[in-house]
Predict the structure.
Amino acid sequence: MKSTIIAIIATLGLFAASTLIGSEIGQLKMNIERCEATIQQLNVDLAKSRDALSVMQKLVMVNAHQIQTLRPKRTVVVTAYTASGAETDDTPEITASNRKVRPGIIAVSRNLFDSGWVFGKKVYIKSLGIFTIDDLMAESKTDRIDVFMPDLDTANKFGTRQLDVYLLDA
């Protein structure tokens, strides 16, 4: 009888262990299926990334010349100006393009203007940001840009700088 009880207990123990192991195996199978689905999605994403990279490489190859010309169009002297009568013509609040002066605009020298740096075009000035060409400098100035500043103190503190500039709307 004692051996029968031990056999029953052992059988129950084995049954419980196999049930527990079966449950863990089921959980492992579900985890494996989730991992396989994740791997499949990653493979799809990787294929899309490779396709996008291929398109980008082709785009760069086709436009290599244009991309190379994105180097600085000019290195020019950059100064600052205000709307004071001493720094402008007889209409200090009005730009050469007939607009009101405001932060974010620049005046360009006539030689830049004549080479396509015209009113309304955007210019990136390295370390300063993007500006709109809206004014002209005196005819005596060449290869120069004047950044509008609202007050004389700020303009004086800006001083004179030699900077790379990019014409964005070429």
Notes: The helical segments are 2-62, 64-68, 110-114, 152-158. The chain has a mean pLDDT of 80. Residues 72-167 form a domain with the Barwin-like endoglucanases fold (CATH 2.40.40.10).
